[in-house]
Amino acid sequence: MPTLDHSRDGGSGELSAPRLRVDTPERAGLDPEETRLLVRDVVDLTVGDRPWAAGAVVVAGRGPVIAVQEAAGWAVRYSAYDPASDEGVELPPGARVPMTVDTPFDLASLTKLFTSVAAVQQIERGTLGIDARVGAYLPDFRAAAVHDVTVRQLLTHTSGLRPELPLYDCADDTERMESLRAEAPVGEPGAYVYSDLNMLLLQQLLERLTGRTLDVLVHEGITRPLGMTSTDFGPCPGAAATEDQRRPWAKADRGMLRGVVHDENAWALGGVAGHAGLFATGRDLAVFCRTLLAGGSYGPARILGPDFVELLLTPPGLGFAVDQPWFMGELAGQGAAGHTGFTGTSLVLDPDTDTFVVLLANTVHPRRRTTDSGPRALAGTRMSMAVR
Fold first, then answer.
1. β-bridge partners, 40
2. Which of 32, 245, 346, 359 could make a disulfide contact with 254, Cβ separation 3.0–4.6 Å?
3. pLDDT tens track for 298-308
4. Alpha-carbon distance 29 to 137, whole Å?
5. How far apart are the C-alpha atoms of 11 and 283, rounded to whole Å?
6. What is the pTM of this model?
């Protein structure tokens, strides 16, 4: 495994990477007016009868400085969704739970970034080949083995696997695993098709390779050394609420969810999955972003060497999306990397300007709707304009 407790970067003699501190936009080299507008924009997202999100948290900064840290709206606003009126059933004001900067969120697909880092840690160690065939590690996953799916294809969503399988409709774990083992690519290998199945196969590979479950790999290799004490797989009772999950708009009938994973497949798999299941706060994700911007180090800890961080973030990215204006706004274009999550989460880190912006929102509370990433893109644009 990578060195986790090292006072110098990989033994190179460099001093340990500075930890984050809260300071003014000016001290971070950011335009205070643009950061003020960023906060205003996020607050506006939570206002009105049909807001973009019931609540939101934004954490943004440059270098080792957190210059923006703001919460708005409600972590829990609704008791249910009423399909007849197409509106949420609002809780009495005294029963609602305000959003705070310490509120954890269901990260949804931001989980994929942690699975990807865990995989690249094994690549750095030499125990996993990036262009190795998945079948060499998982011979019982017959379809992937026959079609010569590679580790790189899983990490870049170019395996040809379809976006998802209805594992939540399987009778038990045995049937779920057999479905994964038998699932063959439906598309041309090498073509980009975003798929949760890539990360589910990668999870199985990592667990087989290391003899440890994914939650242990993430904790021991990433969150513990970085001091990300508010990041873990659920349950997470204090998290922001997500959806009144019922058919026909959802894939399962589970009622109003809070503190348990929203994604139906991750739920069916027990809450720990390669594509979804993590909960975290904005501050913890700022540490994650800062670590990658600093070449894999944070304080005395190193989770990856600089060359392997570069491997993660070099287009097209391993797990990370690179230069995607639809959710990064004007931060895209010079190597910005990040991801979005179905529940309303996103993060972007930009090595070119040494900036990051984390926007967490419970947009699926009280129910999922057509995704609108305009507010995410605007947050990225505000950060781009804030850089002096």
1. none
2. 245
3. 999 999 999 99
4. 47
5. 28
6. 0.95
Pick from 40, 31, 41: which is nearest to 62 by CA? 31
Q: Which amino acid is at 302?
A: R
Of 239, 277, 280, give the one whose Cα is nearest residue 257: 239
The rounded mean pLDDT for the chain is 95
Handedness of CA 356, 99, 37, 328 (dihedral sign): positive
Distances (CA, A) of 292 to 144, 147, 298, 302, 355: 31, 33, 9, 10, 11
In the predicted model, what is the mean pLDDT of residues 120-128?
98
The whole-angstrom separation of Cα 254 and Cα 238 is 18
Distance CA 38, CA 58 (A): 9
Q: Alpha helix (H) ranges present in the chain?
A: 32-44, 111-125, 134-137, 142-146, 151-156, 173-182, 196-210, 214-218, 224-226, 264-268, 282-293, 306-313, 325-328, 374-386
- Can you tell me the distance from the alpha carbon of 38 to that of 36, in angstroms, rounded to the nearest whole number? 5
- Give whole-number Cα distances, 122 to 1, 2, 126, 192, in Å: 7, 8, 6, 24
Question: What is the spatial distance between Cα 39 and Cα 22, in angstroms, rounded to a whole number?
Answer: 15
- R_g over Cα of the chain: 20
Indicate whether 340 pLDDT > 90. yes
Tally Cβ neighbours within 10 Å of residue 209. 15
Helix (H/G/I), strand (E/B), else coil: 217:
helix
CA dist., res. 64 & res. 357, Å (int): 13
pLDDT tens profile 14-72: 567 899 999 999 999 999 999 999 999 999 999 998 999 999 999 999 999 999 999 99
Helix (H, G, I), strand (E, B) or coil at 241: strand
